[in-house]
Design brief:
The protein has about 180 residues and is α+β, with helices and mostly antiparallel strands. About 60% of the residues lie in helices and about 15% in strands. It contains 4 helices and 6 strands. It has helices at about 1-25, 75-85, 105-145, 150-185; strands spanning about 40-45, 45-50, 55-60, 65-70, 90-95, 100. A 4-stranded antiparallel sheet has the order 3-4-6-5, with helices on one face. β5 and β6 (about 100) form a beta hairpin.
Length: about 180
């Protein structure tokens, strides 16, 4: 039972870090990457699909993304989806491919993105601390029910704290790396 509590806490903490990594991919660091378009959904053939399932996405230059729909008839749908996304990019449609030129980031925009990254990092830290609190509550109730001795409960709480510290450090490293990418861009 106590192993399950630790395992569940670790899974929740790992999920928080993975969610942070996924969210940070969508933040533009000044360089073009196909991952910037991961959250774009296109309505084609009566369904909503991820952009990467209806088009090939390439990066021929550091500030340019090319989107080439596999079905040319969906070009307008792809363009509309990119415009509706919150990426702030203007698609340039030449009838065959869509070019997305990433503008040079201003210092002000870089600072704004860095603040956004810090907030996402803090949200992930809160999720990790919530997982710690839930695990500690479970351990305390197991101790109260007599399923764990007091010493065993304290030893396990120490392990939960070590897990928490490890994942918080990982979050801090991920956030610092993304901030560095944004500021150097």
């Amino acid at each position: 039972m106590s192993g399950e509590i630790l395992q569940e806490a670790e899974q929740r903490m790992q999920a928080a870090v993975e969610a942070l990594r996924r969210d940070l991919v969508g933040i533009r660091a000044g360089r073009a990457t196909p991952a910037l378009l991961d959250k774009v959904r296109v309505e084609v053939y009566g369904t909503v699909m991820p952009l990467n399932q209806v088009a090939s996405i390439t990066v021929p230059e550091p500030r340019l993304i090319l989107v080439q729909p596999w079905d040319q008839s969906s070009l307008a749908d792809v363009e509309r989806a990119i415009l509706k996304s919150d990426l702030g990019l203007t698609p340039n449609n030449d009838g065959k491919v869509i070019r997305l030129t990433l503008p040079q980031l201003t210092q002000e925009r870089r600072a704004e993105l860095a603040r956004q990254v810090k907030k996402m990092g803090e949200d992930a830290r809160v999720a990790v601390r919530n997982a710690r609190r839930a695990a500690n509550d479970d351990l305390k109730s197991a101790e109260k029910d007599g399923a764990l001795s007091k010493d065993e409960a304290h030893r396990l709480m120490d392990q939960v704290q070590k897990l928490t510290d490890r994942y918080i450090d990982e979050i801090d490293a991920v956030v610092a790396e993304k901030e560095k990418d944004i500021m150097e861009g």
